[in-house]
UniProtKB/TrEMBL annotation:
Pfam family, one: TatD_DNase
Lineage: Bacteria, Pseudomonadati, Pseudomonadota, Betaproteobacteria, Burkholderiales
An example molecular function term from Gene Ontology annotations: hydrolase activity, acting on ester bonds
Protein name as annotated: DNAase
Residues at which a divalent metal cation 2 binds: H135, H158
Residues binding a divalent metal cation 1: H6, H8, E95, D208
Length: 272
């Protein structure tokens, strides 16, 4: 059995066949998907979807949505975390973090706002005693500094692609590291090396559906220009992604499923 620790199943890309996506995931043994919010506007959507599908959810404001975010949205997050504090399907504050890749988010003013919302949401996670799901894109060191300033009860560094030293720093702070479709590419040498060198106890699996497609779903710019749409990722792809990792580590698929599912429950205890 598998746990997909990160999938945006409320995304518009799934509007036409969301029920079928859910059934395909269950058919291949993906028993749970964690659905993280990205903005206050979709707090209710992810919660209702998680309950309808017997999945789990997280509430937070994604760094890509901080330009439009206000203190009112932070207050809404605080209120939602309080209102649903006894909801065992609410497993984390997330998706939160910092993005160092998108140029318009890295002007001095935009980066300051990203950091303001990251720190504020860490404080909410601390107050509500919840783990966090972190967006880590060219931002690992700044995220680690925030965690040292405002300690939380662990969580997941989603789509991790930093250095071994940074990985070890997250692990020391009680975090698991999320791996998904990116490691299926032969050219992802650093990521593959990281996924094999880290202790198995540090790894959780994710799809980031509908994004982060594995290599068999990826379409090049030329293919897209010729009319072939980019492949849509979904939780049912998780076992095939896991097969790549199992082969890299030289372990059985069953052993990987058991270990990564146990790790997910450690990172997000309400999954128990």
């Amino acid at each position: 059995m598998w746990i997909d620790t990160h999938g945006h199943l409320d995304a518009a890309e799934f509007d036409a066949d969301r029920a079928a996506v859910h059934l395909r995931a269950r058919a291949v043994g993906v028993t749970t998907c964690v659905i993280p919010a990205v903005a206050a506007a979709n707090f209710d959507n992810v919660r209702l979807l998680a309950h309808a599908q017997q999945d789990a959810y997280a509430l937070g404001i994604h760094p890509l949505y901080t330009p439009q975010a206000t203190d009112v949205h932070l207050a809404q997050l605080d209120a939602a975390l309080h209102t649903h504090r006894h909801d065992m399907r609410l497993v984390a504050v997330g998706e939160i973090g910092l993005d160092g890749f998108v140029p318009e988010l890295n002007t001095p003013e935009a980066l300051a706002k990203q950091q303001q919302f990251y720190k504020a949401q860490l404080k909410l996670a601390q107050q509500h005693q919840l783990p966090v799901i972190l967006h880590v894109r060219r931002s690992a060191d700044l995220l680690l500094k925030g965690l040292r300033d405002t300690p939380v009860v662990g969580g997941i560094a989603h789509a991790f692609n930093g250095s071994l030293q940074q990985a070890q720093a997250f692990i020391a702070l009680g975090f698991k590291l999320g791996f998904g479709g990116a490691l299926t590419y032969d050219r992802a040498l650093q990521l593959r090396r990281l996924a094999t060198e880290l202790p198995l106890s540090a790894i959780v699996l994710e799809t980031d559906a509908p994004d982060m497609p594995p290599h068999w779903l990826y379409r090049t710019a030329e293919q897209r220009a010729a009319g072939h749409p980019q492949g849509r990722n979904e939780p049912a792809e998780l076992p095939r992604i896991a097969q790549v990792l199992a082969e890299l580590r030289g372990i059985s698929l069953d052993a990987l499923a058991a270990a990564t599912s146990a790790n997910a429950r450690v990172a997000l205890p309400r999954l128990q």
